[in-house]
């Protein structure tokens, strides 16, 4: 039941992937007349790709070649209700805003093969940089009309298993709406109707007129002579160690018990895990003398769909998450009880009322800024990508393709126990050593 820092398993450096074919896929029927899709102020700052890999075991009724054909056909169909996904990002020079030109230029589709078996790849939980070969992010010679907003790659393995790699612009989906997209793709691949009809009206999250900022927003920073699409967190050139810390369901239960201020208190797994990570990350700075008066700010996403008045449709297909925050002095993080830190994290979520969310969106209208903090916790833990039921079954595992960033910590589910969580951390070596010591120290305290 104990926590463990997973040792780096032997990782295949080369999955021996060969691209068999690359093409553009177009809607299989005429969509609405060409238009420009408005992008909200949340979408505006997310002009970067999100890459995921979905692994599937072999299935006697669905050889990889047949699966590739079904996914391609489903993609052609899904580009009708998701017409924006066949479009291209463009900058409106009049407004200075990004938009999607719904021009039907197509999504990308790639068929590839690997000389490896899934068993040879080994531990799918451990993020292997070689997984990047299972996702195509650009189609070069096919990009005469601009870069596709969605590219799907189906890679077959020698064992009959396969991987579906997806690369989508974050401006198109957040994790919740991408899960709905996958459910719809799976339904269409099986000859069924859409599981969810997407709501494509991004103007539901337009700023008010005139914009009204009614709260301070320390979690946001103004752009100062930077590009509109400046990265929220930029990749570092430092050498980083990569480690996974697995919190078993028992570890999480123990943390919850320590955080309770009364026996009937209900504490979410996310809040207690995030509080634990915050304390370890903030105190792991590679300095001789830890400045305990330094203020640490943690960022994490909150789904605003049910928090708005009236609520957004659950099927809203754009980005409907805003950055919540919690701030504390390092002294409080080092000496304070875990219960206090959990309260701070919970308060950050509670702060995200309709008025606060509207204020943050209006702030973006005025200042064109983006989230800003010491680091961000990005949770893939409960998104449920591995619960999507395709005709050939659910994925054996789903994971993001990892990136070289020390300011983002990823949470994702375990392959064997959905109530456990894997904490993926990238830090310079000395900081990682300190983080690991603190992770175990505060867990056992």
UniProtKB/TrEMBL annotation:
InterPro entries: CAT-like_dom_sf, Plant_Fungal_Acyltransferase. One of its GO terms (molecular function) is acyltransferase activity, transferring groups other than amino-acyl groups. Signal peptide: none annotated. Belongs to the plant acyltransferase family. This is Omega-hydroxypalmitate O-feruloyl transferase. It comes from Dovyalis caffra.
């Amino acid at each position: 039941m104990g926590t463990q820092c997973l040792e780096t398993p032997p990782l295949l450096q080369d999955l021996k992937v060969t691209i068999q074919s690359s093409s553009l896929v177009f809607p299989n029927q005429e969509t609405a007349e060409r238009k420009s899709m408005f992008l909200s102020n949340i979408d505006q700052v997310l002009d970067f790709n999100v890459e995921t890999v979905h692994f599937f075991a072999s299935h006697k009724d669905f050889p990889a070649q047949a699966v590739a054909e079904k996914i391609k056909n489903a993609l052609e169909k899904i580009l009708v209700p998701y017409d924006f996904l066949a479009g291209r990002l463009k900058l409106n020079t009049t407004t200075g805003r990004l938009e999607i030109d719904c021009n039907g230029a197509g999504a990308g589709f790639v068929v590839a093969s690997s000389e490896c078996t899934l068993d040879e790849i080994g531990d799918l939980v451990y993020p292997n940089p070689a997984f990047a070969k299972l996702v195509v992010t650009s189609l070069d010679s096919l990009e005469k009309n601009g870069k596709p907003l969605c590219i799907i790659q189906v890679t077959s393995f020698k064992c009959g298993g396969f991987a579906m790699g997806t690369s989508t612009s974050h401006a198109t989906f957040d994790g919740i709406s991408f899960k709905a997209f996958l459910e719809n793709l799976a339904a269409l691949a099986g000859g069924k109707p859409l599981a969810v009809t997407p709501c494509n009206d991004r103007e539901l999250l337009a700023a008010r007129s005139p914009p009204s900022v009614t709260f301070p927003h320390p979690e946001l920073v103004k752009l100062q002579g930077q590009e509109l699409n400046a990265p929220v967190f930029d990749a570092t050139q430092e050498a980083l160690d990569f480690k996974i810390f697995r919190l078993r369901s028992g570890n999480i239960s123990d943390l919850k018990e320590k955080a309770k201020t009364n026996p009937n208190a209900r504490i979410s797994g996310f809040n207690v895990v995030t509080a634990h990570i915050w304390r370890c990350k903030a105190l792991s700075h590679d300095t001789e003398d830890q400045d305990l008066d330094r203020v640490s700010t943690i960022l994490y996403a909150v789904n605003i769909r049910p928090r708005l008045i009236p609520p957004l449709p659950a099927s809203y297909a754009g980005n409907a998450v805003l950055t919540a925050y919690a701030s504390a002095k390092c002294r409080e993080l080092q000496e304070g009880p875990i219960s206090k830190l959990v309260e701070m994290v919970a308060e950050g979520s509670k702060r995200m009322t309709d008025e606060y969310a509207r204020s943050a969106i209006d702030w973006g209208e005025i200042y064109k800024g983006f989230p800003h903090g010491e680091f961000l916790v990005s949770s893939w833990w409960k998104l449920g990508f591995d619960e999507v039921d395709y005709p050939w079954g659910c994925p054996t595992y789903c994971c993001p393709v990892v990136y070289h960033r020390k300011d983002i910590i990823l949470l994702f589910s375990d392959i064997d126990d959905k109530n456990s969580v894997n904490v993926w951390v990238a830090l310079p070596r000395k900081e990682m050593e300190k983080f690991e010591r603190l992770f175990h120290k505060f867990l056992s305290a």
